[in-house]
Amino acid sequence: MQDPAAHLLPFDVVLDSAVDPSRTAILDQDHWARVNHEIYFVADAAERAAFLGDPIRYCGVITDPVTGERFRPVPTSPRFDYQGRPYYFLTEEHRSQFQADPVPYADPTGKMVPRSSG
Hints:
Blueprint: H1 4-8, E1 32-35, E2 38-41, H2 45-53, H3 55-59, E3 62-63, E4 69-71, E5 79-82, E6 85-88, H4 92-100, H5 103-106, E7 113-115
Parallel strand pairs: 4-7
Antiparallel strand pairs: 1-2, 3-4, 5-6
């Protein structure tokens, strides 16, 4: 999705900041961060910098772009940055598969599968 804020604004959606849930997020491209296929909105530039500096701290459960499986990344999760966005994977094999040919996996096209146990 190129600009999710454009789809949310007409509905007067109000979101909490991904970094500080006591603050209201600003719904524009300058106040979002992406991890894998998920988009997170924040309240200001400092929060965006904090999010981008440590995405695992704030992102919660995400979708492995190769398998579509939901999981919560940890600091040892395989990571690959592509087009300015961090991508995290369940396994090193998934990261290698993405890195070899990221185009089919970079944007969501299929269904998510249930969260992994563990």
